[in-house]
Amino acid sequence: MLSTLQQRQHEYNLHRERVGKAKAIVDSEPPIIHAGNFVRFTKLKEDVETYFGQYKRNIRLLVSLNGILRTKGIVDTFRTVPPVVHTDFKAKIRKLNQLELDNIAFGARVMCMKGDLNTRNLTHFKQKCKSGLPEFILPHELLHKYENLKIPNDGSNLRRLFRPKIFLDIEVKGYRPLGIVVIQLYTEAAPQVVHELVRLCIKKDVDRFQFVRLFSGLWVDIDLSLDDKTLINKNIEYDMRAVDHGIHPGVFHFSVEKETAHRNGVFSFSISFKRLRVLNGRRVGFGHVVRGSKTLNCIQDYSTKNGKPTKEVVITNCGVIH
């Protein structure tokens, strides 16, 4: 029986509807592959255990061979029970950490300790009056430009005027004290600078000193903050003949360049660690260390190649020695 056109169209529509609702039997999604199949995460533990097992067997074999060589094969050195191999690396690390903690605790106790003898007292650094002290000779070749200056005749007053002595108590902040440095100043070398240092030491204004650069074997640079009452101006009067850099170690000196020595209310000077004859004629020396050379050597321990100190070095006390 022949179907009509309408029947065929109806059957075709039913077929399209069944095809649209059909679901594929084959999975067309990409497979999920675990990353451990490529990086072997699961086998790393097995590889480590295998490596250490072989390592222990090699050690046992070496121990046995050593025993055979020492006894020349007379004693049976092969053990039925494998020896336990111990390493003292972790024990050494623990001892090192404990030693560091003990050192820190010891340093804290030293900082808090007060002895019966006060070694940091100023009286121990006073100039003792000696019989037969040589008469102070004025540097006339340097003072000829001060013809109108009234100079005292007393030797002690002359020393106080032209050779004042100050001291600086230096320490590594929060770490340990370094010691006291006594400096002999030369007034005729740079009167403004010397008088400013004496004024600050009398006021004990230690916060205005700052260690900025430290070069081992050369010198340490210090910045001095200036206030409104400072005696130092941009036209600093100086004489380079007063202090010889090649004779005295620990010379206090500054540069004659205005941009280097005096800038924005800060005066920069340096302390040399050794005799530097090459600085004669280049930098003005206005004093040198007469006591405390070991303290200067301790300061060098905190230097670096670029000049930045590894620890903060500060001045905790200062004063004038009469």
UniProtKB/TrEMBL annotation:
Residues 176-320 form the PPIase cyclophilin-type domain. Gene3D superfamilies: Cyclophilin-like. One of its GO terms (molecular function) is peptidyl-prolyl cis-trans isomerase activity. InterPro entries: Cyclophilin-like_dom_sf, Cyclophilin-type_PPIase_dom. It holds the Pfam family Pro_isomerase. It comes from the Eukaryota. This is PPIase cyclophilin-type domain-containing protein. It comes from Glossina brevipalpis.
